[in-house]
Amino acid sequence: MRLRGLREPLPLSVEFARAHPTRRRPPIQIYGNTHGLKAGQAKRLDRLFRRGVPADRLLTNEFARELTEVSRDIRRQVGVLIDRRGEVTHVMVGSPHSIELPDWGRLRAGRGRLRGIRCIHTHLGDEGLTRDDLTDLALLRLDAMVSIAVLEDGLPGLAHTATLRATRTEGEDPTERLDPVRPAELDVDFQALMRDLESDLASLDTGKETGDGERAILVAVTGGRSRDDLEIHMDELRELARSAGVEVVDSVTQAKPRPDPKTVVGRGKLEDLAVRSFQQDVDLVIFDQDLTPTQARNLAERMELRVIDRTQLILDIFAQHAKTRDGKLQVELAQLQYRLPRLAQRADLSLSRLAGGIGGRGPGETKLEMDRRRTRDRVTRLQRDLGKLASQRGSRRRKRDRRAVPVLSIVGYTNAGKSTLLRSLTKTEVLVEDKMFATLDPVSRRLRFPREREVIITDTVGFIRDLPTELMQAFRATLEELEDASLLMHVVDASAEDFERRIEAVRSIIEEIGLAEIPELLVFNQVDKLPPGMGETLATRYDAVAVSATTRFGFGDLLQRAESMLWSDDLSDFEKQRLEGLAAQGQ
């Protein structure tokens, strides 16, 4: 059994209300492969809606026989969905080898609860429950999944039954299978079974308190990358999730030359991902690859979970950390620019709920155009407001230029220790957090060198590999602060395993924004985390300076190199010793 997009449902001859005038039901619809059915066969399928089972029974022999006889007659699998009252809500027709479930939406809500729907379908052979059956059971949180074998004479054979079990152990099968028996021998108090199971499932959630972070699974496809590169990217994605306040409970990777155009991962991996999500009760699935609107929609429909990509995660972190009006406007602009091309997919979803096609296109298109117009209007307004703020910053920079004060700009990969270095150098209060993108808004302080020389030292937003285009465009005004820099102090986390890749990522972004001509001073920070002497070795190899922003190690050499590059004249030996002495005393 598979959960996929179906053909348009085929309304058949009568309505449930005609047979049961006291009950209100929508018109009868048979879902799936209804092409080529004879009138008599359609009527037999109609009669399944009038059938049902007692509320305390999982299945009766009479209902099972009705299913197997019509299945043998049309030589296709037939299935039904039955609610807790024992009433048939959907009838499905498949092929001889498979059947598809309709998209009925979220019928019940609440942690620890099941769907309130059981699925019963036939198999023309006696293959029992398939992997697809068990995956759908776990993925959709069905009450039960039952497959009935169809014998040659049309009578029901063995009934294979599975329910969920209360478990969060990784790798453990989340399904519980009953012994195969004839439908007449399937003596189960279904109501009591569901009460006990939902009680056990609810008990799994007692350890999660209000306010805890969302639980997430991280997913990545190699896409031609080596395993080592993939692990580095997953570590970075894990750090991004932590910065966003997300609890990472698992990670899934798949070796594929290129991501699947529909679902990123392959079918088998997607089923495994769905089962893991159920087992570990996750709220969110985060993909390292940027998702197309179609991929995001397909994944959300298959797993019935919120699915985001790396860009959305970074945007969320920026939204959490933006404090000033400038920063908030830039984040909102980036979010709107990201969502604008995805509005059409949302309109498609609303059209499908409105039936779509002829007679249904107008309202959906009108809403789509309305959303697009409002979004574009808001983008235009944000760009105008950011332009005004950029003009104000330009005026401040011109005043600073008239005083001939050099500007020393700190750049580097996110969470490299730039803000800690600024605080230690200037002895001022600056926000410091062990999180990615903790600093979004430019921070400027005065730094006094010996010989009564002053510079303006600024800390800007950190960079990251594959920086989303929307963020580059939105934060271009902020990055203009770097244009007036006399020297770029490129801070690198020396303890990072992939520090060379991070150096190249930062230099690539600096070149992209047209600042490659500004002199660069490479600074290896956090050398206190390395074995003794390794920091100095790295500094010599890369013509850099080794420092520790927390212990102030290497500050004398740092200030000496910065001063010589800013003013391009040599310092006397006495002044070098004085400079080192001042740094050692913390003055």
Protein model, in words:
This protein has four domains: 2-203, no CATH class; 215-320, 3-Layer(aba) Sandwich (Rossmann fold); 322-386; 405-585, 3-Layer(aba) Sandwich (Rossmann fold). Helix content is 41%, strand content 19%. 36% of the residues are buried. An eight-stranded mixed β-sheet has the order 2-3-5-4-7-8-9-10, with helices on both faces. The chain is elongated. The protein is built from 19 helices and 20 strands. The protein has 587 residues and is an alpha/beta fold. Residues 2-26, 206-212, 347-365 and 570-576 have low confidence and may be disordered. It has helices spanning 16-19, 39-50, 61-74, 131-140, 190-203, 227-243, 267-279, 293-303, 310-321, 325-339, 343-353, 361-402, 418-426, 469-474, 476-479, 499-512, 534-542, 555-567, 573-585, and strands at 2-3, 10-15, 27-32, 78-83, 88-93, 100-101, 117-123, 144-150, 156-164, 175-177, 215-221, 247-254, 284-287, 306-309, 407-412, 443-449, 453-459, 487-493, 520-525, 545-546.
Blueprint (SSEs and pairs):
Layout (H helix, E strand, L loop, with lengths): L1 E2 L6 E6 H4 L7 E6 L6 H12 L10 H14 L3 E6 L4 E6 L6 E2 L15 E7 L7 H10 L3 E7 L5 E9 L10 E3 L12 H14 L11 E7 L5 H17 L3 E8 L12 H13 L4 E4 L5 H11 L2 E4 H12 L3 H15 L3 H11 L7 H42 L4 E6 L5 H9 L16 E7 L3 E7 L9 H6 L1 H4 L7 E7 L5 H14 L7 E6 L8 H9 L2 E2 L8 H13 L5 H13 L2
Parallel strand pairs: 1-6, 3-5, 7-8, 11-12, 11-13, 13-14, 15-17, 15-18, 18-19, 19-20
Antiparallel strand pairs: 2-3, 4-5, 4-7, 8-9, 9-10, 16-17
